[in-house]
């Protein structure tokens, strides 16, 4: 039971004994220099917010058991990122953690699209890499700490990420992350604003990555799937089960699915990974109207073992297809869109 504010004051001279938020700077290897907010709720939930990587969520665990994926790249400093390298696939050299943001003007695979809306003759087109630029941009940290509302204590952090160029996009992401002292959920509220004055394309996706020990042989993927709209050729070639998940497989080729989900009565989508042996479930919940599309990324390769849950504003065709079929989101001058997502850890 979480103590009241008075009880906590009686029990300890420092509320950090129960939990809190601490700002540190990582100091070694490719991670050196990344400002990180360490959240501890006191229930066993602990996670890191990587301020200098779009305020994305890196390491995450509950009761000492990790559920945020840790890839071989580590949490690479954004100054090392080569956005246009390797034909746009260099994003894969900075890909790790519970959540990596894709956007703000492009998601999914790269390509070249017209730039005529920016009205700058030398810039006739824009070339995008995999999942856009946002995940490698540092945030301006505007605040963090603990806020009491009666006997409820909310741990919080807020920051701003700007993706901008002269004669190009001028997009601002305002991100707020909250967790309750004694609680088992992470609440994320993002607002993306066109801070400029030209119509600007907007695409947004969360690459939510779950790893071992939550992900293990026999773990289950749960979702109310109405229909699978698309899948990679590797699904037929390998046939790995995407509902009851296998263990690591040497040389596995990623299997990706676009599922159409049924929302609940409140208009929410909810998906989860469950490990019955571990007695642990991690779910993600979001508003269907904000993220109408969803991808399941199955990466069972030995050494890269992960499953990805990906709420998205757009279907798998990406930027060019969205422009062609009219589904591209065009943010007008000073126009905003807000996204609300909840991560929840349950003990079974």
From TrEMBL:
It comes from the Bacteria. CDD domains: Aldose_epim_Ec_c4013 (cd09023). It holds the Pfam family DUF4432. InterPro entries: DUF4432. This is Aldose 1-epimerase family protein. It comes from Nonomuraea guangzhouensis. The lineage of its organism: Bacteria, Bacillati, Actinomycetota, Actinomycetes, Streptosporangiales.
């Amino acid at each position: 039971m979480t103590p009241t504010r008075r009880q906590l004051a009686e029990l300890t001279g420092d509320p950090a004994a129960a939990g809190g938020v601490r700002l540190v700077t990582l100091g070694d290897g490719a991670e050196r220099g990344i400002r990180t907010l360490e959240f501890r709720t006191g229930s066993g939930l602990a996670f890191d917010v990587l301020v200098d990587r779009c305020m994305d969520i890196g390491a995450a665990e509950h009761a000492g058991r990790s559920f945020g994926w840790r890839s071989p790249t580590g949490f690479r400093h954004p100054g090392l990122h080569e956005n246009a390298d390797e034909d746009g696939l260099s994003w894969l050299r900075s890909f790790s953690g519970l959540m990596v943001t894709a956007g703000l003007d492009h998601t999914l695979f790269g390509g070249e699209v017209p730039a005529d809306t920016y009205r700058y003759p030398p810039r006739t087109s824009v070339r995008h890499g995999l999942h856009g630029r946002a995940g490698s941009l540092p945030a301006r940290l505007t605040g963090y700490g603990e806020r009491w509302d009666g006997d409820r204590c909310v741990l919080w952090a807020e920051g701003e990420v700007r993706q901008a160029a002269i004669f190009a996009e001028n997009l601002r992401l305002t991100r707020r992350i909250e967790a309750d002292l004694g609680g088992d959920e992470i609440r994320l509220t993002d607002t993306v604003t066109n801070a400029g004055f030209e119509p600007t394309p907007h695409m947004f996706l969360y690459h939510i990555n779950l790893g071992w020990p939550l992900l293990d042989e026999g773990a289950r993927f749960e979702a109310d799937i109405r229909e699978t709209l698309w899948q990679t050729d590797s699904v037929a070639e390998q046939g790995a089960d995407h509902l009851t998940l296998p263990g690591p497989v040497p040389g596995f080729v990623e299997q990706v699915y676009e599922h159409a989900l049924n929302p609940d009565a409140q208009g929410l989508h909810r998906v989860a990974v469950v490990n019955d042996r571990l007695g642990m479930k991690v779910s993600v919940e979001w508003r269907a109207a904000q993220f109408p599309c969803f991808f399941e990324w199955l990466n069972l390769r030995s050494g890269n073992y992960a499953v990805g849950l990906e709420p998205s504003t757009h279907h798998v065709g990406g930027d060019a297809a969205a422009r062609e079929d009219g589904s591209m989101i065009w943010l007008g001058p000073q126009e905003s869109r807000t996204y609300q997502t909840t991560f929840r850890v349950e003990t079974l």
